[in-house]
Automatic annotation (TrEMBL):
AMP binds at residues 414-418, 443. GO terms for biological process: metabolite repair; nicotinamide nucleotide metabolic process. It comes from Oceanobacillus profundus. Keywords: ATP-binding, Isomerase, Lyase, Metal-binding, Multifunctional enzyme, NAD, NADP, Nucleotide-binding, Potassium. Its EC number is 4.2.1.136, 5.1.99.6. PANTHER family: ATP-DEPENDENT (S)-NAD(P)H-HYDRATE DEHYDRATASE, ATP-DEPENDENT (S)-NAD(P)H-HYDRATE DEHYDRATASE FAMILY MEMBER. Its cofactor is K(+); Mg(2+). Residues 225-504 form the YjeF C-terminal domain. It comes from the Bacteria. This is Bifunctional NAD(P)H-hydrate repair enzyme. (6S)-NADPHX binds at residues 57-61, 130-136, 159, 326, 377, 444.
Length: 509
């Protein structure tokens, strides 16, 4: 599933029409038919339906839907909310076809009449405006939208709830509040944003015959799905030994936060790492060693229970290193992150307190020759960007892409919809997981799983997407099987990793 801005969707549309030769009328027919198929599954023939139609191609989709429903014996009324001369091009073509098939269209502007109509129907189909909306809705459309929103009818939007922007980061709007939205061809950015997602109601994408490669050439954003995990997760070879699955090092922990290191280490091993060493203070080792007997330990220098350095120890023979969890924010500890940024000869993941220290030495990121990965939650990402969390969440694709490109890092921006970004600006959204994950320690588990994935032979971007998938799916399976959003613990997410591998088995060889 691809994710697009309005501009990307128009480019995809133009290419399909002008270079491939699938005419606009045909795409509109496909769109209207595909939406009608879904509508027919939702409503009965006896339920009166009113289709509201605006001036653009979204309205054109509405005329196709009206024709299909009329033909199937539905009680359809069509209300055009703009004068006849505004209906042009492909939309006019389909309006004429609808009328030739016996359909009737009323152009209504009297708001009382519209209110009466809306009160009498069970279902409203909203084909007023699609991705072509500019700014806040003008009158009388704004008032018509209000009337529809106040009615008891089930509201089904075509492509996007009318009035809602397709792109992230757009401030003011008035929108239809849909119960269902059938999104044409590709997900729009706004269907994932905190301030706009709810207007869609339940939504689903309906394909309209645009070839896959056209999406690939026009957008760098997509959803990471189960099939992607199945296709990319590397096999475990029958002749494999522990060295085949990577040797990782996790540096972190302090006297007040020993558990975070234990959880990350255990999660890395559970997710498939061959060997994992935990680098920390002697005291923390004595606290966690029994919790994770499969790991090895590296004693690091300390002051008052906080790590002060790590490069005096051998860090060159690891395949990947993670730093930051439970590290603490003491100034002496900042040096640990600097040493690793300078010297880690392998992919380096920075999380939690490591990100706090990174803020003071961001310029070092560009000097690294090996990949760097950061795994912030929105608060940490906003801190690194120097903006507010609400600004970040209004346009997360934009902010993370710019930061990743400027600083040459991979980013996992954690959230309900986690966004994974590569230094080239490729972006994936991973949406598994549930509110049970909103608890201390789950980020440490993701760090451990990510470290393990980074060391399996797969492209680094895919590895990070798969780590998020395993983490979220583990939480989902635990909730399905035995737990609730209240009692899910980070350690349960570690236990659930085996269930993910059993549920989505990978090839053996
Ligand atoms: N994605 C595809 O491949 C296909 C999409 N289809 C549908 O087409 C629309 C986009 O159509 P477009 O004609 O570009 O724009 P709209 O229909 O969304 O609306 C334009 C219409 O709205 C008026 N308008 C804009 N802003 C406002 C405002 N603030 N207040 C009032 N009126 C406003 C503007 O004047 C225009 O008249 C897409 O969403 C799909 O549904 C194709 O049918 C199939 C291919
Ligand atoms: K619409």
């Amino acid at each position: 599933m691809y994710i697009v801005t309005a501009k990307e969707m128009y480019d995809i549309d133009d290419y399909t029409i002008s270079e491939i030769g699938l005419e606009g009328k045909l795409l509109m027919e496909n769109a209207g038919r595909a939406v009608s198929e879904r509508v027919i599954k939702l409503i009965r023939e006896t339920e009166p339906v009113c289709i509201f139609i605006g001036a653009g191609n979204n309205g054109g989709d509405g005329f196709v839907i009206a024709r299909v429903l009329l033909d199937k014996g539905y009680l359809v009324q069509v209300v055009q909310v703009v004068p006849d001369e505004k209906i042009t091009g492909d939309a006019l073509f389909h309006k004429r076809v609808f009328i030739q098939c016996g359909g009737e269209v009323s152009y209504l502007t009297d708001l009382d009449l519209i209110r009466e109509k809306v009160e009498r129907v069970h279902v409203v189909i909203d084909a007023i405006i699609g991705i072509g909306v500019k700014g806040v809705l003008r009158e009388p459309i704004q008032e018509i939208v209000r009337i529809i929103n106040h009615s008891k009818a089930c509201v089904i939007s075509v492509d996007i709830p009318s009035g809602l922007p397709a792109d992230e980061g757009i401030g003011e709007f008035t929108s239809i509040q849909a119960d269902y939205t059938f999104v044409i061809a590709a997900a729009k950015e706004s269907s994932f944003m905190v301030d706009t997602a709810d207007f869609y109601g339940q939504w689903e994408i309906v394909p309209i015959g645009i070839p896959n490669f056209v999406f690939q050439n026009n957008t760098a954003k997509r959803q990471w799905a189960e099939e992607d995990f199945g296709k990319t997760i590397p096999s475990r070879h029958v002749h494999a030994h522990k060295g085949s699955h990577g040797k990782g090092l996790i540096i972190g922990g302090c006297s007040e936060m020993p558990g975070s290191l234990a959880m990350a280490t255990k999660a890395a091993l559970k997710a498939g790492a061959g060997l994992v060493a935990a680098g920390t203070t002697e005291k923390v080792i004595s606290m966690i060693a029994a919790m994770c007997p499969e790991a090895t330990y590296m004693i690091l220098p300390e002051k008052d229970g906080y790590i002060t350095g790590c490069t005096a120890s051998p860090i060159s023979n690891y395949d990947a290193i993670a730093v930051g969890i439970g590290l603490g924010r003491r100034e002496e500890t900042r040096h640990v992150v600097a040493e690793l940024l300078n010297n880690a000869p392998c992919p380096l993941l920075i999380d939690a307190d490591g990100l706090y220290h990174l803020k003071y030495q961001l310029e070092m990121l560009k000097q690294r020759s090996e990949p760097t990965i950061i795994t912030p939650h929105p608060g940490e990402m906003a801190m690194l960007l120097g903006i507010s969390i609400s600004d970040l969440l209004s346009a997360p694709f934009h902010y993370t892409r710019d930061f990743a490109k400027a600083n040459r890092v991979y980013i996992i921006l954690k959230g309900k919809h986690t966004i994974i970004t590569s230094p080239e600006g490729r972006q994936a959204m991973e949406s598994s997981g549930n509110p049970g994950l909103a608890k201390g320690g789950t980020g440490d588990v993701l760090t451990g799983i990510s470290l393990a994935m980074m060391m399996q032979q797969q492209e680094l971007f895919d590895a990070l997407c798969n780590a998020c998938f395993i983490h979220g799916k583990s939480a989902d399976i635990q909730i399905e099987e035995k737990q609730t959003y209240y009692d899910l613990m980070a350690t349960d997410v570690i236990d659930g990793i085996s269930k993910v591998y059993r549920a989505f088995p990978c090839k053996r060889v």
